[in-house]
RNA sequence: GGUCGGUUGGCCGAGUGGCUAGGCAACGGUCUGCAAAACCGUGUACGGCGGUUCGAAUCCGCCACUGACCUCCA
């Protein structure tokens, strides 16, 4: 196939043909969550984006090692006045052990990712489990001369580094601009320059999470874990590093600098960044009160939500936008996605019931080509989905007898449809409503049977009464040629 | 203030210099005792003003609006 996977590389700002470092194998590292709160919608975007990439790379035949970290050392709380660790702060508020908080929210994250049908990564390393590796990186950077110790902390010397290597190449920042934009501030004495960032930080007395080192009892800098863990599991050079656009600067820029300072060369070959999510056109953020947790989406228990949304609706909706575009969540858009996905899934059942004809009046080969071309074009899932809706029309037309399909084409269609809808996009039929015990089902079926009898007797009053009462109770009664079916909304 | 991005029909959301994105909604039809559901069909949109071009939503400039990150913070 001359149609090759192209990936948009943030570093070059271009789409590039993806060629792995080692033939047939791909090393993929993605920045995972900081586990100090419940998993929310913002966590789902990168998870689904790189899950799609992971699935597609495997589908293409690559052996993929996918590393996605858990950040459990914690970053500084955005709105905290003190330089206190997010996780330590939360721990004090909740009167829990830091690792207890970490475990609680890690479990929450895992549970929600499973609901979203996000595959587990190959390795999910924790920052707290790699303190020694991080200290080793600090030593290497110090030995290379790109860091200095100051009052028990170790800082990365950005200006020194920038003399030897380009700094800011990923985010398009120029060091001169950053310097001229820097104000004089108090409390910067420890750093030689405001641009410098900590790679080891001495712990304040109230700071609970701390480890001994030759500089101080402290903790590693927040950019360091990814450098240390990607190197440990994927090597000094690896293929793809992904994460949210919000991490581009300073996090990823710092990662590049740390790896280059420590090893003398670049670590990452392709940088990928997924865009952010907005809610009713507004940025999603905790301070704005619109950071809806995934649990709330799934249960519908949030003031902004009109109803509960199935995890698959969230997943599908994310896939209907390209990963590098912002995506706006609203009840209207979600409900539109919900209906569209139902149609897509229903067509797969219709497809399984199709009978082949001698000849095809439809072109499955072309459809397949278009679907793969879309995926190869920087994972353009919205385009691929558009083509799948063309497949829906084809399927329904065949079922209607307006088109015909050969046995060979039908197999190809099934294979294509199943590959994209289930294997790559990772969609599943929504879970059946709970309380679906057998007696309950039988009772509803009985009511519908009574209605069927009434209809046979042209007793429309009784038939309509049953239907209307069931509707009032929240059931949806659907009459089809093969009889009535129902579901609970 | 700096850097980068966005502005597409009622809503969401793709996109290439000229050739239908797609979904939802809406409307029309098929089906139905009626309805719902399901299925089929229909829509000619691209922030404003200039410019380049035979031709621009797609390229360039300016303006407006908007987003992200940074400018305080490990």
TrEMBL record:
Record localization: Cytoplasm
Any one cellular-component term (Gene Ontology): cytosol
Name of the coding gene: cysS
Native source organism of the sequence: Mangrovibacterium marinum
Residues bound to Zn(2+): 31, 226, 251, 255
Catalytic activity: tRNA(Cys) + L-cysteine + ATP = L-cysteinyl-tRNA(Cys) + AMP + diphosphate
HAMAP family noted in UniProt: Cys_tRNA_synth
EC number: 6.1.1.16
Xref: InterPro entries: Cys-tRNA-ligase, Cys-tRNA-synt_Ia_DALR, Cys-tRNA/MSH_ligase, CysS_C, Rossmann-like_a/b/a_fold, tRNA-synt_1_cat_dom, tRNAsynth_Ia_anticodon-bd
UniProt binding sites for ATP: 286
Family as reported in the entry's similarity comment: Belongs to the class-I aminoacyl-tRNA synthetase family.
Source lineage: Bacteria, Pseudomonadati, Bacteroidota, Bacteroidia, Marinilabiliales
Protein name from the UniProt record: Cysteine--tRNA ligase
Motif ('HIGH' region): 33-43
Subunit structure, interactors included: Monomer.
Cofactor-binding details, from the entry: Binds 1 zinc ion per subunit.
Renumbered ranges of motif 'KMSKS' region: 283-287
Keywords: Aminoacyl-tRNA synthetase, ATP-binding, Cytoplasm, Ligase, Metal-binding, Nucleotide-binding, Protein biosynthesis, Zinc
A Gene Ontology BP annotation from the UniProt entry: cysteinyl-tRNA aminoacylation
Enzyme superclass (EC): ligase
Gene Ontology molecular function: any one: ATP binding
Cofactor names: Zn(2+)
Pfam families referenced in this protein's UniProt entry, alphabetically: CysS_C (PF23493), DALR_2 (PF09190), tRNA-synt_1e (PF01406)
Domain Cysteinyl-tRNA synthetase class Ia DALR: 370-434
Spans through the membrane: none
